[in-house]
Write a structure and sequence with these properties.
It contains 10 helices and 8 strands. With 238 residues, it is of the alpha+beta class. Bound molecules: iron/sulfur cluster (2 copies). Pfam families: CxxCxxCC (PF03692).
């Protein structure tokens, strides 16, 4: 397999590419400016925990979020500074939330392709000079060094909240879009669980609830389960 030379080439796990990002490159931090970065619920969890913010405060201060016009699916994007168009978290030395940076930032310069286990290069060498550097990786090595797996696992779990017969792009009622948004605003979901009537009604196991109150990741998985059961019930009624 030859090295991918352009950003449309589809790459698989064992395919090689050259890349090294460092301070001396003229493009350093340029990719953290005026860019659309879509956040997953797990991205929000990791970032707001690292910043010591509640989910609502994080979403308000550091994201643009809305329900998509026709489908009403929640869209959550990392906010850029209004004046400089730079990401709120970029500094002189690079990313200031590096250990908790979003999935898309970890993957860069790779992006997910349309099919499972396939990737493309998101940028070209004219924009991302790191692609001209000598360090060689396979896609699998790169994803491993960037610790992408926990993000991929959580996102796969989030994808299962939609009923099996739901077709991508199918419009949802706005109320169901708001229900999906609970996965991003996890503190609101946790506050709902303070109501014993709700936990009894949805038969939430008290031991699991106790664990979730101590473990954000478990709270997120519980939110996925709650959203899945609610969506299944409500879509049946519509
Ligand atoms: S454009 Fe590429 S090489 Fe330049 S800072 Fe961004 S990731 Fe690094
Ligand atoms: S989170 Fe970090 S890596 Fe991602 S755009 Fe912002 S500064 Fe860049």
């Amino acid at each position: 397999m030859t090295q991918a030379e352009d950003k449309k080439t589809v790459l698989r796990a064992e395919d090689p590419f050259s890349f090294a990002c460092h301070h001396d490159l003229p493009c350093f931090t340029q990719c953290c400016r005026d860019v659309n970065i879509y956040l997953t619920p797990y991205d929000v969890l990791r970032l707001r925990r690292a910043l010591g913010l509640g989910s609502a405060e994080f979403l308000e201060r550091h994201t643009r979020h809305f329900l998509a016009k026709i489908t009403h699916i929640p869209v959550v994007q990392l906010a850029m500074d209004e004046k400089t168009l730079r990401c709120h978290f970029v500094g002189e030395d690079g990313c200031r939330v590096y250990d908790h940076r979003p999935w898309a930032c970890r993957m860069f310069p790779l992006d997910l392709a349309d099919r499972d286990d396939e990737y493309t290069l998101l940028a070209g060498k004219e924009r991302c000079f790191g692609l001209k550097e000598g360090a060689r990786w396979t896609v699998a090595q790169w994803l491993q060094t960037q610790d992408v797996e926990p993000y991929a696992v959580m996102e796969r779990a989030f994808q299962t909240v939609m009923p099996l017969n739901f077709k991508p792009g199918q419009p949802l009622e706005p109320g169901l879009g708001k229900l999906l948004f609970l996965a991003y605003d996890l503190d609101r979901f946790a506050a709902m669980l303070e109501d014993p009537k709700l936990t009894r009604l949805y038969e939430i196991d008290p031991e699991r609830l106790r664990r979730a109150r101590e473990d954000d990741e478990e709270m997120l998985r519980l939110a996925f389960d709650y959203i899945r059961s609610q969506l299944a019930e409500l879509l049946e009624l519509l």
